Amino acid sequence: MATDCLFREDSYLKDCSATVVAINPDGGIVLDRTVFYAASGGQPADRGILTTAAGDAISVANVVYCDPGKTLIAHLPAPSAATVSVGDKLQAVIDWDIRYGRMRMHTGLHLLSAVLPYPVTGGSVGEAESRLDFDIPDAGLDKDAITAKLADMIAADAAVTSRWISDAELEANPALVKTMAVKPPMGTGRVRLIEIVGYDLQPCGGTHIRNTSEIGAVRVTQVEKKGKLNRRVRLALF
Questions:
Q1: CATH fold of 98-237, please?
Q2: pTM greater than 0.85
């Protein structure tokens, strides 16, 4: 049985009811469905609360995939949290402010990868600051010029949509994959594509906003040389 990852179809869901289907040896609570994003692809796990039918609040310390095929999600409770049992009904509620900041930033990083069309060697998504590492043979990146291009894309109010393709379709179109360090999640038979209409199309399992205007104002705060061919570009909301 796989966890029904509600965040993949609607990143704006803040809560859901769920049933405990397993308790892992490390105490991880596996639910039949969840709005909690599990850490992957450079995006951290959501934070939030699980509430029992008795009203006990369980703070979620981390959310991880707990099987090799990444089909099951475990919610790791903070120390001294209330105990639950298989079959218990819970209410799962994420910290929306943190989630929404990461949705805005993650979408902004997709635009950054469109402004800088180079292979991506790494990245990290935060709620206020994020980064992408690029395989760029020459330096000379202009922070203000990049920021201006991002501002134009954001102001265009471009739609951000998702759709699914098969593993075979992705294998037949390898140019869709921009990331060198993080490979798109495959093995379930289908892969999720995120499209920023007119600007970007790539596989991604993360959470995103509905249109670029929701990103708001961003700026490139720093361009770092991390190696002969590696440039780290930092992006922040402001």
A1: Threonyl-tRNA Synthetase; Chain A, domain 2 (3.30.980)
A2: yes
